[in-house]
Design a protein that fits this description.
alpha/beta, D-Maltodextrin-Binding Protein, domain 2, globular
Length: 282
């Protein structure tokens, strides 16, 4: 009986301490704000992209999120990294393979995983009317998937890379008397889309395009452009193909055409990667 009484007394004491304390309850902390750099998307303004991401965050974050994000567009990876170094952005949004590449270059950087992991597929892009070329590219990509060639190249030029200096250009052999198609690369997604300091395309993109060239029987000429100019390069016929546009793997979360303007057709995906944030170490 005494044990029950003392237990009840302790409970009342605790309740009174909580309710009768003169110390006011702490106000909830305001969410921290983070400015995040991201490569310019082809079919969404910066304002539209922020609206999409805000709705996405609200759909899975608690009502009192600890972080609110403001995304800032950059036309190139170089501009984005310079903004991070200068403190103009708090972190940059990129892909796991790019983050790994950047960390091998700079030990002052670290990766921040998102609260929900999003992934994008990477596809070639052509003008909407180039059906024959698109079919040829799709056939090549599908065959490279089925015979394991894409997995082999992904492993050699992205997944197993430990030293960025080991990423060398792959020679794209010329086919006598064959048609030549111009393909745009950006250098803004190394090692997936890598251009060396001397302007030479290198690594995964050259390996994949060398193989595609053989399989479709066409010569390939590589043209370097800024990421933000991918659509313009296609529609102006400066190039026939763009090496990458990103398509959300789960288009119930992000609009499927966020990086695909009207007038552009996309191939089967040849690579998939998750999105991460990179920041300076504290």
């Amino acid at each position: 009986m005494k044990k029950v009484f003392f237990a009840a007394l302790m409970m009342v004491s605790l309740l009174l301490t909580g309710c009768g304390s003169d110390k006011p309850a702490e106000a909830p902390k305001a969410p921290e704000k983070a400015t995040i750099g991201v490569i310019t998307h082809l079919n969404a303004s910066e304002e539209k992209y922020n609206d999409v991401m805000s709705k996405l965050e609200k759909s899975y974050r608690p009502s009192k999120a600890s972080l609110t994000s403001n995304y800032k567009y950059h036309d190139t990876l170089k501009d984005m990294v310079l903004a991070l170094d200068a403190g103009k952005v708090d972190m940059i949004s990129t892909y796991q393979c790019v983050a790994d590449y950047l960390l091998r270059e700079n030990d002052k950087l670290e990766i921040h995983k998102g609260e929900r992991v999003l992934s994008d597929n990477f596809c070639l892009a052509v003008r909407d009317g180039d059906k024959i070329l698109l079919n040829e590219l799709n056939k090549a990509i599908k065959s490279m998937f089925s015979d394991g060639k894409l997995a082999e190249l992904s492993k050699a030029y992205i997944i197993d890379v430990k030293d960025n200096a080991a990423l060398k250009p792959v020679t794209i052999e010329q086919i006598p008397d064959a048609e030549t198609i111009k393909i745009a690369v950006t250098g803004d997604l190394p090692p997936l889309d890598l251009v060396l300091a001397d302007g030479t395309p290198s690594g995964f993109s050259t390996a994949v395009l060398a193989e595609i060239s053989k399989r479709i029987g066409k010569n390939v000429e590589l043209v370097q452009i800024d990421s933000a100019a991918r659509a313009a390069a296609l529609t102006s016929k400066q190039v026939d193909v763009v090496f990458w546009v990103s398509i959300p793997k789960d288009n119930t979360l992000i609009p499927v055409d966020i990086d695909k303007p009207v007038g552009i057709a996309i191939s089967e995906p040849y690579y998939t990667d998750s999105i991460v944030h990179v920041a300076l170490k504290k």
